[in-house]
Design goal:
about 250 residues, alpha/beta, Rossmann fold, N-(1-d-carboxylethyl)-l-norvaline Dehydrogenase, domain 2, 2 domains, 8-stranded mixed β-sheet
Length: about 250
Amino acid sequence: MVSISILGTGNVAEHLCEAFISQKEIKVNQVIGRNPDSLANFKNKVDTVLGFKSISDSDVYIIAVSDDAISTVSQLLQNKKGLIVHTSGNVPLHVLPTNLRTGVFYPLQTFTKGQPLNFKRVPVCLEAKREPDLELLHSLASLISSRVYFVDSEQRKRLHLSAVFVNNFSNHMFHIAHEICKDNNLSFDILKPLILETTKKIETLSPYESQTGPARRKDTGTMQTHIDLLTQENYKEIYRLLSRSIQKTYGKEL
């Protein structure tokens, strides 16, 4: 059995805790945090500790805090013999103390409080300084996910960048569409089947192959109509920029 301590109480920590406690081969010793309200979400599930002064001994310490706090929190584990990992996609391994056993346990997914998900489908990207520690992380990750990858710090930065494009930026596009619908007394629900079909297509086609729309067809009349309909200048700029990028991708300049 692998024992774990989770340092942090945010969305990543909450979803990881749920995944871990569902496995009999894993023992979550405690969840440690500074915010009593956030820590309350873990009570009646695992032992909780307010503050970082009473950290129990565990095989693995998972630091699930903001990127800027990872280095500071990791210093609190200087006297621990277990493997110390963080969960960030952007922070390199070397921010953790070099004199300790360290690694990365990065679940690549968007986590929202109260929104359940199937962790078995969440890719988990691993890195460690020592091969035995990498094997330990692989064993741990394989218990909660069927998609486990070995990704070093430089690759992980670029993977995180890619994730921002496919998740954060695409979600902002949904927001813009939602605002356009709302301003024109249209239901955003009408667009949901299109969103689902768009994401479904990339299971069998590359994004390059599945691209459609007026920019792909070089339908300049339709594009100009769309730009004229937009009332916010920043939306017009986004439309022009994305259309130019699509046309450049397919060898056509605006």
